[in-house]
């Protein structure tokens, strides 16, 4: 299974989701991330957060959704709405879900405040990824509608 975590800049949220998913998921499942307008670099705080959690970031880079190495089976948008951000829409015959999280890369304030925003983003995404991985996916594989309901439920989990 290939999952695409998609946002606008592909420097914080989608990177955190990709790395966390790949850290937790079975070896034959793979997450990738991309952005509709990639920043061209990964946010240093996102990299530091993942390293602090013991999650590898080797080989990750900010990339466009125009240059995906595989066709995803599922697309999860992770952009938030606090800043009036428009989520990119992936077109194609895939399952889609929205697991919105506000962009910690845009938070201003004290170092503690910014660090807390990155921690919150990680905590929300990790909880949603763990909820997804706990689903009875073998049972849901034959029932796309039921799987879509579960994906939407996960996206609505509180932060």
List keywords for this structure.
globular; 159 residues; 4 strands
Question: Overview of this structure, please?
Answer:
This protein is 38% helix and 13% strand. It has 159 residues and is α/β, with parallel strands linked by helices. The protein has a 4-stranded parallel sheet with strand order 2-1-3-4.
Let me know the largest β-sheet. Answer: 4 strands, parallel
Given helix and strand content, the structural type is alpha/beta
Helix content: 25-40%
**How much beta, percentage-wise?**
5-15%
Helix-strand sequence: EHEHEEHHH
Tally of DSSP helical segments: 5
Q: How many beta-strand runs?
A: 4
Global geometry: globular
* Weakly predicted, low-confidence segments: none
CA-to-CA gap between the ends?
26 Å
The largest beta-sheet arranges its strands as 2-1-3-4
**How big is the Rg?**
15 Å
Average pLDDT score: 91
Please render the helix and strand layout as text.
Layout: E1 2-7, H1 13-24, E2 30-35, H2 44-52, E3 74-77, E4 95-98, H3 111-133, H4 137-140, H5 144-155
Parallel strand pairs: 1-2, 1-3, 3-4
Structure summary:
The protein is an alpha/beta fold. It has helices spanning 13-24, 44-52, 111-133, 137-140, 144-155; strands at 2-7, 30-35, 74-77, 95-98.
């Amino acid at each position: 299974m290939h999952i695409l975590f998609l946002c606008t800049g592909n420097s914080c949220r989608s990177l955190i989701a990709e790395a966390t998913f790949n850290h937790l998921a079975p070896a034959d499942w793979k997450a990738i991330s991309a952005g509709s307008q990639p920043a061209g670099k990964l946010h240093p705080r996102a990299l530091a957060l993942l390293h602090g959690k013991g999650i590898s970031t080797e080989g990750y880079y900010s990339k466009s959704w125009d240059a995906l190495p595989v066709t995803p089976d599922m697309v999860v948008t992770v952009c938030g709405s606090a800043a009036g951000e428009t989520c990119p829409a992936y077109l194609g015959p895939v399952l889609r879900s929205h697991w919105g999280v506000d962009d910690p890369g845009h938070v201003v304030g004290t170092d503690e405040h910014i660090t807390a925003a990155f921690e919150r983003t990680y905590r929300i995404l990790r909880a949603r990824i763990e909820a997804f991985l706990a689903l009875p996916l073998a049972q849901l594989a034959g029932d796309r509608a039921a799987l879509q309901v579960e994906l939407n439920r996960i996206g609505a989990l509180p932060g």
